[in-house]
Amino acid sequence: MELTNLTITQLHQGFKDKKFTSVEVTKAYLEQIKKTDKSIGAYLAVTESLALKQAEAADKIITSGKHFSMLCGVPCAIKDAILVDGEIATAGSKILENYVAPYDATVIKKLKTQGAVILGKTNLDEFAMGASTENSAYQVTKNPHDTTRVAGGSSGGSAAAVAAKEAVYSLGSDTGGSIRLPASFCGVVGLNPTYGSVSRYGLIAFASSLDQIGPMAKNVEDAKIVFEAIYGKDQNDATSKNYQFEESNINLKGLKIGVPKEYFSEGIDPEIEKIIKSAIQKAKDAGAKIIEISLPNTQYGVACYYIIAPCEASANLARFDGIKYGFSETADNLLGVYLQSRGRGFGAEPKRRIMLGTYALSSGYYDAYYKKAQQVRELIKEDFTQAFKKVDVIFSPVSPFAAFKVGEKANDPLSMYLVDVYTVAVKLAGIPALSLPAGKIGKLPVGLQIIGNYFEENKILSIASQLEQLF
Ligand code: GLN
């Protein structure tokens, strides 16, 4: 039996039946990382001693005969923007080189309570700014299906780790598409939860009104197990909401699926369109009703997002001044320290966003850019509110094309921003969405995006697991 092929549920059963131990599974994963990660580059740090310690502790719980949770003893990978006490947390930036997290993010605390095993910290675009993981200050993560191509971003390391069997599941974060896009490119399941359903405490902030942590996994059931372990109200995150996840028994039969007419316009690869339309047809064959809807303001999504996200980023990144955290340059005076540390510590993309953001927030331009973008954000939200009066869920592509070549868009920020065309509107509205592997172009996976209404992760997950059987 190949241990690295097993899902969370299979591992849990295997632990119960004493077929293998968590230490054995953990060692199999550490071995796999040693074997394959040189060519993939999913991990920035492998936390081997932590993992083995946690695996031993999990085995004690398992062999004690007491009840143990689904994630107990199951090895996972964590995006390097999420704090794990005592481990590095670079957020993919040189400015946080050697920064060691002084506490656990709430999601990590929750995973640890369940007995999780943490294999390491995964690569990302610097401060999660990007769509290919090429903006990391450290390395480029390659797509396990074709190593000449990108893994998607910004949670490229987390997606590639699962796809390359270097972790059972992982945590990523999604601000404008960063869970769904790499999930789609790497052929794994990725869930962007409703804004407020998962605590952001201990996630290095990019754009606080958009950032959300979520699971990436081998299948829908695993993603659901992880989501159930990490969601919930947290007193350390005032935007987290108190709500109860309940199993949904929604069925494909009679399900009303909205398909936005604006989402199949020019720019989409015809092969992607074919896969998404065939996925929709399969849902229809299973009894779903397909309803054409309109999301007319989505066309402003990218423009609106690339004002709001940099504005928030410019404020969030102000704390990295060379004094309080990580990388610091010496200079004759305090201003010099700031300028030198920030100038050398930040890469090109964060600098670009800091400049865009501070410009859009400056007194002469605030009304024209930031305020206008906030108004457009309301219109985008309203589009979805209207749509969900008519349909249960919305289907769309995750990306207009499959994984592109390493280097293809790296020097063209605008074309990199356009990769987000199908993912940002969801974030501006704050609703949940999942990427489900729906087919392949050659060897490259393609994800279907299933979008739900606020706090309807349960519906999305239920529909996704029914579709998973059909694809
Ligand atoms: N590609 C988008 C950006 O660069 C989204 C990133 C994300 O979701 N973290 O901002």
Word description of this protein:
- By secondary structure, the chain is of the alpha/beta class.
- The protein has a single domain, classed as Amidase signature (AS) domain (Amidase signature (AS) enzymes), CATH 3.90.1300.
- It has helices at 8-16, 22-40, 48-63, 106-113, 156-163, 180-186, 220-230, 270-285, 301-316, 334-345, 348-361, 367-390, 413-417, 424-429, 457-470; strands spanning 43-46, 75-79, 117-122, 142-143, 146-150, 169-174, 189-192, 212-217, 256-260, 289-293, 393-397, 433-441, 444-451.
- The longest helix has 24 residues, at 367-390.
- Glutamine is lined by residues 128-131, 154, 174-178, 206, 309, 420.
Just name the CATH architecture: Alpha-Beta Complex
Helix content: 25-40%
State the end-to-end CA separation.
25 Å
CATH fold-level topology: Amidase signature (AS) enzymes
Number of domains: 1
User: Widest sheet: strand order?
Assistant: 1-3-2-6-8-7-12-13-11-9-10
Summarize this entry quickly.
The protein contains 15 helices and 13 strands. The protein is α/β, with parallel strands linked by helices and 471 residues long.
List keywords for this structure.
Amidase signature (AS) enzymes; eleven-stranded mixed β-sheet; two-stranded antiparallel ribbon; 15 helices; 39% helix; globular; binds glutamine; protein biosynthesis; AS_sf; transferase activity; ATP binding; Amidase_CS
